[in-house]
Amino acid sequence: MANFLIIDDSAAERHLLASLLQGLGHTVDVCETTNGALEKIVQGNYSALFLDIVLPDQDGYKFLRALRANQQTAEQYVILCSTKKTKLEVDYGLKRGANAYLTKPVSRETLTEILQQMK
Known about the structure:
The chain is of the alpha/beta class. The chain has helices at residues 11-23, 37-44, 60-69, 87-95, 108-117, and strands at residues 3-7, 27-31, 48-51, 78-82, 100-103.
């Protein structure tokens, strides 16, 4: 069992991903925006962070840069989770410091595949 944080402004996407993770026996915390998320990550001891790219306060790439620049969170495992799914967009996200990339809509199969890559 692992503990995950989901940062996504879409209530439907947060609910879907949280339900899938909980169905696999994991615990989940959620944030609608990146506001306050860095502090939550420092305190939360998360196995991984699911990070949307298109967010209202700052995009996921900017947040990822801040996360990697912070000594306390630089090693956090980050899975970008987005509707952006071309090879160019996926490669861009991985080059920006993400550990993995999960395209939406998320399915149990694609989620399980991503989680297995963490081991």
